[in-house]
Amino acid sequence: MTLQISIIGILIIAVLYAISAGLLALLWRGIRSWRSKRMVIVPLALVLLALPWADEVWIAWHFNEFCKDAGVRVTRKVEVEGYYDATTTGWSKPEIVTDTKLISDYEKAGFRFRERNTSSSGNAPGKISHLEKHPDGTWRITILDRPTARYHYKRIIDYRDARGIHHEAPVALKIEITGQVVVDTQTGEEIGRRAVYKRHPGWIDGLWTGLFGSGMTMCPDPEKGPHQPSFPGVVL
User: Fold this and answer.
1) Residue 169, CB-side half-sphere exposure with 13 Å CA sphere
2) Residue 124: is its pLDDT beyond 50?
3) Signed CA dihedral, 86, 92, 96, 101: sign only
4) Is the predicted pLDDT of residue 126 greater than 70, yes or no?
5) Is residue 165's pLDDT more than 70?
6) How many CB atoms lie within 10 A of CB 169?
7) What proportion of the chain, given as a percentage, has pLDDT over 70?
8) Residue 21 CB: number of other CB atoms within 10 A?
9) How far apart are CA 58 and CA 64, in angstroms?
């Protein structure tokens, strides 16, 4: 477990400790009974001593536990002609794809078909956009009522705000999860997952980090590693 309190955070704690010590000294002088001093001052001092660190220790411990499950995990690899991608939207009406760049990308991906939700602003909201390479070599979109693919690629947690916009899902105090899973709809088995956990500063560093950035830390960190394989390509 690694505590993530910055130098500035340490200075803030030092200032808080100095103020707390001054207030406790005044309180000490105001209480005459030695027994009352012990009953009041000692517990209060312990609380003030732990307060700047308490949430950081709690966040750091839970983040460390969550990170044990972070990254790409593959239970089973399968060879498929296509899959349903619930993380993005596709065309909302039938048509033939003519964009050479898109066609090149589809060819390189190696799948014969791909299914996505239609755009909510399209002509067929709530439908499935089915993109498939036909025997004549053309890539065509048809609109279906439901996915036909056995394997579904979707978010670990489909968490949205009041506007319907996707966000990382909170899993603990100052900790969120984002990522995707691949599910075999015939068996209900999760055959692969990619989980990324994000933690934000405790209240001490939260007093100032918002002025310069989020102060957010990721696990796994794309810059520090370890390197993660492409997902869902490593499964499908």
Assistant:
1) 12
2) no
3) negative
4) yes
5) yes
6) 15
7) 97
8) 12
9) 10
